[in-house]
Design goal:
single chain; 342 residues; Thrombin, subunit H; 3 domains; 3 helices; 8% helix
Amino acid sequence: MPGKKIMTALFVLIFWGLAFCSTGLAQGDKQFNPGQDSGFYYTIKKGDTLWNLSEKFYNSQWDWPGLWEMNKDIKNPHQIYPGQKIQVFLKKKTVFNPGVANAQKTQKKASPIKIETSFSFSKIDHVGFIKEKAAPFLGKIIKAQDNNLMMAADDIVYIKQSGKGELIVGKTYQIVTTSRVSEKINHDLFKGVKHLIKARVKILEIKKDYTTGSITHAYRPVNNGDFIMEYYKRDPVLMVENNPEPIDARLICSEDNHLMINDYVIAFINAGSASVKPGQIYSILRKNKIKNDSIWPLKKKNPIQLENLESGKLIVLHTEKTASTVMILSSKNAIYPNDMVN
């Protein structure tokens, strides 16, 4: 199998889960810790085999050795047991071993199985979001104690309160920067305000004219003028829904406005909390059409619309009224803003 196909299969593996008995993966003896590690749980069901799960997850029965090799605890690939949980980390690892691919050639396909999966994303607390208008802010960074232009963890910062709320000593808040979003999405103009979460800050002392705080966690460089907002703890473990009702949505942009959106990139779609919920997995589609005159050059007609191409998969991480935050789980083709989500 070509290397590109192997990696594509591995990316599909990440969001669908696996079905073999394991207590650790790609981390030695490290145990999977929901909320600290990023990945999936999958519980083996009656009738599961590496052969039929390879067909379901990879769309190929012949990739079952990859499922076996990724877990050294499986001594016999014919023996996996219902009720055992496996742990899948978001790690890239080449696992296919074609030398053992013929061992199960005559095994029959099992009937379709129901997959119950959870997704753990340790960085859920600092993924950005889009609102129709900017969220209220309680203060603004005006200076670093050490005069750093870019601030990071353990830096002491000075804050000017906004008067729209009270900062409390000992309480943790988040540091956010905002930017306006104005994108043409499916012939309509989408407008909103993107919020990027840069860090967390703990309030140390409140003075008459300013407040001091200590940056406890930094995900991006903090700058003068960044806002202080309420910190909301999000649940890092999401129950996965693989086949939700179809939606008519589009990709708006990524957190960092990439021209092309790749695997594991955080992005936004123009479907809000009324349409989607965290944990749902959707397909990313691109229009597939050809010019009619390429077939009949003497008779120019409108382009022929073929079946849409599936470019990849995404999972919903967070929802707001206007838009939702998603992560790209896998990509078979290039993914761009304005691609369809269905």
